[in-house]
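User: Fold both of these, please.

Assistant: Here is the first one.
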Amino acid sequence: MGAKLSGPGGQGGKTISQNSEINVTPFVDIMLVLLIIFMVAAPLATVSIRLDLPPAVPNNDPNPKEPVYITIQDTGSLFIADKQTTIETLAADVCAALQPTPNCRDERIFVRAQPEVKYNAFMEVMNTMQGNGFFKVGLLNEDIE
């Protein structure tokens, strides 16, 4: 029984050439596994926010209600429209501003603040509104003049 030996004697005078090509099969396998991992992980990274959008049909009310704005100034003072209020009487003053409506807690309230207002003052107003049953609160991002 004979055996093939490396070198010119074992291959009938032929020399062994080196294989200088890159084997890409493991690289492709790794890339496909990473692609699957990212395809599974990407939908889990999205955050959803529930929005209450207005209805698509126009409101044909001839006398639309004026919205109620709560304004927080950088000095810490609160205003409902042009009337000054405090954090303790905020809920009662909002209901007074929405007087013709039977259930004032179902109406939408808009909160706006000057850019210099501290975050804790803003959150105090939001927590007071939520604690008193006002859950339809809109945030406005506009310049207060």
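And the second sequence with its predicted structure:
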Amino acid sequence: MDPNATLKMINEFLEDRRTGDEVDDWCGNLFEWIQKGGFEPEWNTYPIGTSYYWCYVAQRKKEAVK
């Protein structure tokens, strides 16, 4: 996996104001990659994607506590 390419896809998807479950799938893939020890993407390069990703992570952790 290329985490920078994934974060770029997330960012471009959101910049284009598109909606769909695939963006959450990409966030899930990135989350799993990082959890398994993969290197993190360049967060500052894709600010919209980064913001969405961290919201996704927060929601995922909130649901895990329930």
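The mean pLDDT is 95.
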